[in-house]
Amino acid sequence: MTLPTAPVDRDGLLQQAKDLRARQHVREALDVLAKLERAHPHFSRLHQERGHCHIVLRNAPAAVDALQRAVALNPTLPTSWDMLAQLHRMAGDAPRAAEAAARVAMLEALPAPLVVAHSLFADGDLAPAGDVVRAYLRQNADNVGALHLLARILIQQEELAEAETLLRAILTRDPAFHAARLDLAMVLLQRQQPLAARTEAEILLRHAPDNRDYRKAFSAACIALGDYAPVIDLYETLLTDASSAEAGELRLWRANALKSAGRQEEAIADYRAAIGLRPDPAVAWFSLANLKTYHFTDDEVARMRTAEAACADSGMERIYLNFALGKAMEDRADYARSWHYYAQGNAMRHRFSGYRQDVADRCADELQRVCTADFFAARATWGVADAAPIFILGLPRSGSTLIEQILASHSAVEGTQELTEIGRYARELCGADPACGLPLEPAALTHLRAHDARSLGARFLEDTRAYRRLGRPFFIDKMPNNFWHIGLIHLILPNATIIDVRRDPMACGFSNLKQLFGSGHQEFSYDMRDMAGYYRAYRAMMTHWDAVLPERIVRVRYERLVDNIERETRALLDRCALPFEPECLAFHQNDRPIRTPSSEQVRQPIGRAGLDQWRHYAPWLGPLRVALGDAMIDDEA
User: Fold this and answer.
1) Which band of pLDDT confidence, cut at 50, 70 and 90, is reported for residue 605?
2) Same domain, 333 and 372
3) Do residues 404 and 392 make contact, with C-beta atoms less than 8 angstroms apart?
4) Which one, of 331, 450, 326, 281, lies nearest residue 380 by Cα?
5) CA distance 198 to 205
6) pLDDT tens digits, residue range 166-186?
7) What is the pLDDT at residue 314?
8) Are residues 410 and 311 in the same domain?
9) Same domain, 316 and 376
10) What pLDDT is attached to residue 557?
11) Helix 26-39 vs helix 44-56: crossing angle, to nearest 10
12) Domain with 20 in it: what CATH number?
């Protein structure tokens, strides 16, 4: 995750440096470039300008270093290549001079607008780069290189649907355009279509089975599909000739796969190896903490505290370390210091959260206005009458992974993962609010017709087939945020089982506050008022669904399950029309892959330790309790 930094007038500082050099104030120009580099270290033209400055100072080695950095960041800088050719000739380095001259010739042979567009793109100037390419394509519509550049610009602008369309058009014209196919695979992954992404990666691997980028794309698709076994071995193979920097990444990725596959000791070893290899090991420290069952040594805690204190800003490195240190101090029962780190990490992360309570409340109100009892009664015969899907939903950290693990230990039920299909269908139908990702126009559900609902239900069953490998009659989708979409689920899959997992709001709220989620996920969880507001919106939605779809939703109380697992498991299985199987009580022995933060916790027998853990932090959680208000009373009743 990359967090925004304070804006700096990049182009203005570059022009200031150029003006200073023109007036022979070269040292001052270099000072300006140093300031610019601190804000934009990957801006190629600042390094090119630095090369100009060192040439004026007759410092050829420094000029070469600066220009080499410029072309490494942006290979489409003719001026930098030309200056390098001259400097290498002056130094008597004929081979390097010839290589630089060849680069100049190659760029001169290309259409000038494409050279300009590539250069702008390399420096992140996406809008002007796109304008240049589009203008060129109006006269040269069949240039696949220009089309590919436009697709890459669209990807950076997060216009993924348009980029996918363009990449497919390129491959229709030129199926051997492997760079475009690789981009397509990565776009499909971002669009949450891992099976299609893996298919594209497999095509690439048939062409070049040893290509590292193709193998990484294949691995990413496998992980998205929950297929970890081939990935673990593939990462091990890639490690044999990896650079130190790449090895740090591979160790981290392999550790994540090992964790999800239940191979904890091996995962710990790889996380530790990643800490030693990565220049920014904070994410690996956090990953160890995120196992939930790992206890840091005193030496490790000291190293993390030193690293956290040395962080110059409040970016992701420091955020990772704060959440890791919060867990380390919690394990030591040093709750005051633990809360200090949790609160500090949340405050930093909250600065970049897009969550807005008014958006969530407005979405909840509109869904309740649209999805009435009469609305569903008029559509009672819609959808696909297939009972295979089991949706487990609610708030994150509510105990849903435990419920999933219990059900997935039944011989008739397959656990998959937090599937994204329902959310994607909701976005297609209703749009998505840019702040929270919630349905923008829930009234669009009224435009559905019976054949649309049947089509979506069939599409869900087909889209999720890739995650089902055991051939069992039932399968689980454990996406917690699907509580917003219960109306859509009921319309398209009226016989699906829907399970709402409910946990004490203080315990659930605290558990979210001490969890750092992946980029863009659960953005409400970094502030107590946001956390309480989201919980209240969730409660309002569940109360509404219960009223308009009576007896439709199976509710599981996490605390009751912990108090009497056999009684509650039998009741849950009965509501799911499943016979009792003792294996469901031995859920911790199930070695299925699990991707959620609770993966290691549910591989242990059930315990009461987590029920009251929040009470250790009660002195600091007053704002959460106050903001929950009557939601506390309702839950305690």
Assistant:
1) low
2) no
3) yes
4) 450
5) 10
6) 999 999 999 999 999 999 999
7) 73
8) no
9) no
10) 95
11) 160
12) 1.25.40.10
